[in-house]
Amino acid sequence: MAGVRWRAPGAAACGPDRSVPWAYSTAVVCAVVFTGSMGLLPMLGVAGQLHHPATALAAYCALLAFVGFHARPRVIPLAAVVCWLCYDGFVVHQQGELDWDGLVDVYRLAALAGASLLGTTAASVTHAIGVRRA
Questions:
Q1: What is the gyration radius of the CA atoms in the chain, in angstroms?
Q2: How many whole angstroms separate alpha carbon 42 and alpha carbon 69?
Q3: DSSP letters along 70-117, please?
Q4: In whole angstroms, what is the distance from residue 119 CA to residue 76 CA?
Q5: Binning pLDDT at 50, 70 and 90, where does residue 29 land?
């Protein structure tokens, strides 16, 4: 067969990982997270939720859960940090100032990373169920 490479059983496949078809590259995920984070700010501002950090954090968690559904687990920390930077600079401290609030920011980062991990886990379970049925 032309174009089909033979490999020994048990040998590693060459090329991109096809076991996770839903996952995008790290650069694409980071670009989507950054664009989504910055796009979420005007929507929160119009809705009047920039003065309610808990509601804004829930919106950022929803964004990360959605993006996490299409990301590999290794991208989770980077995506959570990108969202936290936008959230901390424009929601918590307003005027684009970044500041570390101690343990509160650890909890915020954990919530953002957990939401992304939840999306990635949901994608893995969905994929496993689909493979099992096939």
A1: 19
A2: 24
A3: TS-GGGHHHHHHHHHHHHIIIIISSSS-----THHHHHHHHHHHHHHH
A4: 10
A5: very high
Burial group, residue 45, by CB count within 10 angstroms (0-12, 13-18, 19+): middle
Q: Are 24 and 70 in contact (CB under 8 A)?
A: yes
Q: Quote the distance between the C-alpha of residue 72 and its chain's center.
A: 9
Tell me 134's DSSP state. Answer: -
Tokens of 132: 């099992």
> 72-114: per-residue pLDDT in tens?
888 989 999 999 999 999 999 888 889 998 999 999 999 999 9
What are the backbone angles phi and psi of residue 32, rounded to the nearest 5°? Answer: -65, -40
